């Protein structure tokens, strides 16, 4: 199944089960189940935005958009992550009142609806797991679904406690734990997407190691004005200036430098060859490495 097909199938499942959990939460008077429904609703949003991003990223490059629309994936992931914070806030707010005045909870109804949600979550986890390793937007969707799967397990456990011991306050406690999971997922997704939007160095690239390897290329004297960033997950870019010995062959040096870049997961590189030491540096220099 294609990534788009996996996202479409997961979107249909998430939307249906979120509605089911809302009904179950109302019938059972369970904040934990309603919180899980809210988490699953964000999964639905996450999947919808991810699907949108996959489609728009395929839009051909144009004269006005020379990089295409790959950045849409990171923007969608940023929206997904940010959407989790107000939802978690509401869960904590409502949970405080329920801790003070625990309402009666229908444990059997709660467990029945949560069990259906758990089965659906497991299907979505299997659908999204593969793509989450290479795509930040798929990763955002996967983290939503995986976090909700863990939360649903907690909801079922809380429901069992309500049935066996009649302690309804556990429902509010489970809702609070779900809120913490939501915050954790939101923070990670926002952090990863901001790294791309702010054009920071990708986590998998170590500039010290990269420039060290580049200066080992025969004929290279120094590397400066180094910039490495991502257009989207898995699409890393690099630009730099390289001081080269006058007797070196430029095309051979370029070939060797591009090979080094590819070892560091850099897909596209722009390298300016210079045959002199330029002691006047631009104000935006990030990194410099010279041979001893």
Q: Spans with pLDDT under 50 lasting ≥5 residues?
A: 278-286
What does the largest sheet look like? 4 strands, mixed
Structural class: alpha+beta
Main sheet: strand order? 3-2-1-4
For the record, the CATH class of the largest domain is Mainly Alpha
Which bin fits the share of residues in helices? 55-70%
| Count of folded domains | 2
The overall average pLDDT, rounded, is 84
Kindly provide the radius of gyration, computed on alpha-carbon positions and rounded to a whole number of angstroms.
25 Å
Number of strands: 4
What is the helix/strand order? HHHHHHHEEHEE
CATH topology of the largest domain: Alpha-lytic protease prodomain-like
Proportion of strand residues = 5-15%
Beginning-to-end CA distance, first to last residue? 52 Å
H/I helix tally = 8
**What is the general shape?**
elongated
Fourth CATH level, the homologous superfamily of the largest domain: Cation efflux protein transmembrane domain
CATH A-level architecture of the largest domain? Up-down Bundle
């Amino acid at each position: 199944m294609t990534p788009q097909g996996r996202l479409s199938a997961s979107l249909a499942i998430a939307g249906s089960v979120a509605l089911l959990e809302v009904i179950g939460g109302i019938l059972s008077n369970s904040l934990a189940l309603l919180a899980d429904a809210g988490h699953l609703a964000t999964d639905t949003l996450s999947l919808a935005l991810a699907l949108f991003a996959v489609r728009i990223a395929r839009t051909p490059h144009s004269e006005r958009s020379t990089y295409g629309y790959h950045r849409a994936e990171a923007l969608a992931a940023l929206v997904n992550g940010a959407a989790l914070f107000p939802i978690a806030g509401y869960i904590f707010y409502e949970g405080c009142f329920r801790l003070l005045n625990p309402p009666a909870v229908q444990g059997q109804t709660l467990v029945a609806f949560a069990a259906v949600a758990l089965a659906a979550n497991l299907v979505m986890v299997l659908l999204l797991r593969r793509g989450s390793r290479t795509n930040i937007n798929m990763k955002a969707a996967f983290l939503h679904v995986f976090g909700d799967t863990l939360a649903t397990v907690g909801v079922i456990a809380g429901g069992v406690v309500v049935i066996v011991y009649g302690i309804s306050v556990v429902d509010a406690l489970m809702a609070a734990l779900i809120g913490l999971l939501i915050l954790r997922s939101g923070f990670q997704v926002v952090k990863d997407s901001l790294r791309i939007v702010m054009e920071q160095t990708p986590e998998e690239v170590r500039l010290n190691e990269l420039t060290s390897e580049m200066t080992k290329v025969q004929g290279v004297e120094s590397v400066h004005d180094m910039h490495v960033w991502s257009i989207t997950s898995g699409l890393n870019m690099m630009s730099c200036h390289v001081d080269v010995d006058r007797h070196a062959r430029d095309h051979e040096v370029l070939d060797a430098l591009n090979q080094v870049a590819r070892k560091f997961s850099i897909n596209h590189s722009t390298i300016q060859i210079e045959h002199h030491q330029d002691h006047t540096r631009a104000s935006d220099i990030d990194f410099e490495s010279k041979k001893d």
